[in-house]
Amino acid sequence: MASAAEQLAANLNFGAFAKATELKKRIWFTLGALIVYRLGTYIPLPGVDPAILKELFDQSRGGILGLFDVFAGGALGRMTIFALNIMPYISASIIVQLLTTVVPSFEAMKKEGESGRKRLNQYTRFGTVFLAILQGYGIATGLLGMSGGSGAVVQNPGAFFVLTTVITLAAGTMFLMWLGEQITQRGVGNGISLIIFAGIVAELPRALVATLELGRQGAISTILVVALLIMVVALIAFIVFIERAQRRILVQYPKRQVGNRMFGGENSHLPLKLNTAGVIPPIFASSLLLMPATVASFGAGGGPEWLQFITAWLAHGKPLYMLLYGAMIIFFCFFYTAIVFNPQETADNLRKNGGFVPGIRPGPRTAEYLDYVLTRLTAVGSIYLAFVCLLPEFLVSQYSVPFYFGGTSVLIVVSVTMDTVAQVQSHLLAHQYEGLIKKAKLRGARR
What we know:
The protein is mostly helical.
């Protein structure tokens, strides 16, 4: 069966893609949804002067607001209806998933199956609305206090501006949440990840041109520009290598006799990825760091001294930011891995199907062994994620290069690309299997 699947995968070509009409519809739907998202990042908020805002935003681009703007695809810098992007939804997802491990009622809902999952999704949506309103209010009040050399950012300040801004930003986030769910159901890939991916990729050409322009003007040396580009290529290769790495645990199935025939006696493998959590930990960590830092950055100019202190130390390359970011990545690696992989459940399924790990007794001992192996893999994976995300951030912060080349951005782009390509291949593989089944039925009917 495995050799047949490998042979089919090897035969996937453009001819197979041309015949896969369902896959083409999914791809066109995904592209159309992402185009709608990109158009929304250029619709400005009412009552905001874009020229003055751009002047002020360029002054703080090297800080935490710049990172937020990366994930928002430039929507925050232009202060558009999608300025909050999908970050409130991600933050709400984090909170709900944390509650499933702490609150018994949420844990019970998680075990209820499809009905429990729907209820948890509803709580996540309610949390998204609450956080979007909260962050929208923070941005609205921050804009009221912002002014540049040409005047104030808000043309007609007042309660009406705050109300319309909060409603617009919250509605934009809810629309993106709905759009992401539609992409996941009717398109190709994970919708939420693809929205973040589209925002980062859309800003890459501008960042590349800005970096080359800095080299041409002599702001940074040509050798440094070349070294940064080489570092990005090497980082991409390293990410691809680690993301494909896995530990295969040998699983054996005993032979059994049914009538006069022998069944079983086969060997299989239980693949455990080195980075089981994928790109989720950096996204979660960035989202949690951006929530308080966004409000702090908007009010840093004239706020209290403690607020200015927090804003300064949460800038890129600062010790507090690096420490919190690395610690959150490692924490969410272990947390998310514990959610998506249950050693006890896996051990029970192996025992029910007659499988066992050689040298390990089925049941609790197998669960302990799987937990031991997974913990070691997750420790290495968390260090890898922290290294990939923090090293480029440190280097980029020292040389004032646009941090679209940051480790988090590169990791998201590479991981989402690999995941989407894998889903396209699985759709093509399923289409070829359907073709083989139809041919087999036709041949059987003729006989």
